[in-house]
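User: Structure please.
Assistant: Input sequence and predicted structure:
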Amino acid sequence: MFLVLHRELSVERCSTRVQPGRMAQTDSRVLVLSVLAGAAGVSLALVWYRTRRGQQWLGGGEERRGGGAGSALALQARQAEVAERLGALIQCVSELKDEVRALKDALPRLQEQVRAELRAPPRTPRRKRAAGPARVEGHSSEEAESEGGYVTAHTDTEEEDEEEQGEGGGDAVQPSDVGEEKDDLTLLLDQADCLNKGSECQKREGLQVLLGKKEEFGLNTSFLWRLMRAYVDAHDMATDVSDKKSHAEAGKMVGAEAITLNPMCAESHQWYAILCGLMSEYESVQNKIKNGYLFKDHLDRAIELKPQDPLSYYLLGRWCYAVAQLSWLERKVATTLFGEPPSASVHDALKNFLKVEEIQPKYSKCNYVFLAKCYKDLGERRQALEMCNAASSMSTVSKEDEEAQNELNSLLPSLSA
């Protein structure tokens, strides 16, 4: 680049050798370009030089045509203008150099600041520990057990105790409103699970506690399926038929809300299916069969979403066994109303009850009784007796266990004969 500039300046000097004024002008231009090359770079100087060279040649033609005095004044004016612009350019370059120097000085300190920020972990608020009995290790979060006339599923919600982190201590960060809401919900769900495991009085209290919080947490799926479970318990504990139907209807409405809110919640489909089964006891024949189809559809969906839940397989086994016992007339009514009757066999029921035992051995007394009934219907007396003995070895805890024991007492004489 310097060679190109030097060659052009040499041509300039040759073309103006006969004019002393032009030679002085060229020398001053060389001085200007030298300053530009040192301060702003050769490329900028070359562009400026080529631009000004065209103007100077035009000026030189006017000088040759117009005479000496006027041309000298015009030349001085142009030189003054060039000097002024050059001074401004040098000032800008000087300021730019100062900014670059300041940036270079700041970079090492900036790196240290970034490292310090990365070394200090963020502080998180300590979560409140939910009140209630401690979880037993080895139990799943959706542990199912026989209670309140139905095998009920409880969820032990996770209790997290997040310790504050950070170097050198400091004030704790206050939890946000969202965090407080989650903590309140966790406490409520733990309380509901605890009351569900208790006596009938505690189960009634659990329903009232959940109803009192429905306006606040009515859009939370975990809250809604527990409310459905509480309605099922209330239905089983009620003695008046109208009260039973009222609890079943209210629970089914909550189930419809929960499924609409979150169709991917297995527990919502599971408890909605149970409530459809309960409602079939208080409906007409047409609605009874319709609820039977709803029961099966939502139970299948629950198994699809959560394939290792023993409660769903137990309920499906009960449905298959009931369908297998339908009379010809009942099947005919179903065909007339819906075009296709429900289809299931004792083998289907046995398969589901065995799946329950596979997932969770000794799941419930009632599951053993239904295994015995399936084996008896299939003519396998020895296996039926084994299941009866297994059922007899289990203690009677819930109302459903009492019903299972009554069926066991009536089943054993027929197998022993």
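Residues 1-48, 54-64, 121-181 have pLDDT under 50 and may be disordered.
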